[in-house]
Write a structure and sequence with these properties.
By secondary structure, the chain is mainly α. The protein has one domain: ABC transporter involved in vitamin B12 uptake, BtuC. Helices cover 72% and strands 2% of the residues. Strands 1-2 form a two-stranded antiparallel ribbon. β1 and β2 form a beta hairpin.
Length: 333
Amino acid sequence: MSKHWPVLTLGAVLLVGLVLPIATGASPPGFYVEVLLGGLMAGVLYSLVALGFALIFKASGVFNFAQGSMVLFAALAVARLGEQMPLWVAMLLAMVIMVALAWLIERLVLRPLVNQEGVALLMATLGVTYFLDGFGQTLWGSGIYKIDLGIAKEPVMILDQVFQGGILVNKEDFVAALVAAGLVASLVLFFQKTSTGRALRAVADDHQAAQSIGIPLNYIWVIVWSVAGFVALVAGVIWGSQLGVQFSLSQVALKALPVVILGGFTSIAGAIVGGLIIGVGEKMAEVFLGPVMVKVFDLAGGGIENWFAYVLALLFLLVRPEGLFGEKNIDRV
């Protein structure tokens, strides 16, 4: 039964949020498909950020609270460097900066804490979070900056021959979702098909066994943090282009926390499926559940997209705390 959890959960979200409203005939079917597509595109971006959490936790057992700050730092670097040079050069230079930053975090913060209690590592990543927030703004500035990817922000109408009134899709969101999906697919292939990826999975399964067959643990951790830095760079550029590069960007990145709770902290596939569930559920709740709550409870309205994902994750923890793809911990006495 457990292997069917992802399909059942995503199917339930789609059934409640899409099929039932269409069946009632309250609005044209194209409107619901439009909401669904918007949720899927947002979910791909959530999955991208969640991958950074899952990669580091899978390889080192550390929940990296600094991932959101890494997204902000990378976006600030691209935005400010892009003012002095072509954007593609700024992105390459920012990539070098993020890899160097990842190496320094592993070398100066994590390596001295090997085999320490988990709470020590958690507090270390919290310290890195606040350092990156402050140092990033000290180095790059604390204003609101723009990243212009050259993609038109005007929405376009598609499938107007299929659905009455067509479906309105934001071109920038669509391109960003394609880029994020391509990166996610590339990372999955990297972990499944390359020798380095297999070494990373071996380290994740058993640190001591991996070391016993000659896999250097510190080298693997540097690679994982470097990949997480690259993921943060792509996510920072995408989110920064859409929302502007500002301090709140690190808080947006933490929306990936419910994603890894749903998918499982150690699962790459879980980060992908969890992101899609959160993205679709959030959009459906904003469009369909929000107005109902306003009417029934006489509320002011708005803001449901800020808390829905966390409430969904909390409810999910009560049913399946290890996540859709997580491994059950069985304590034998």
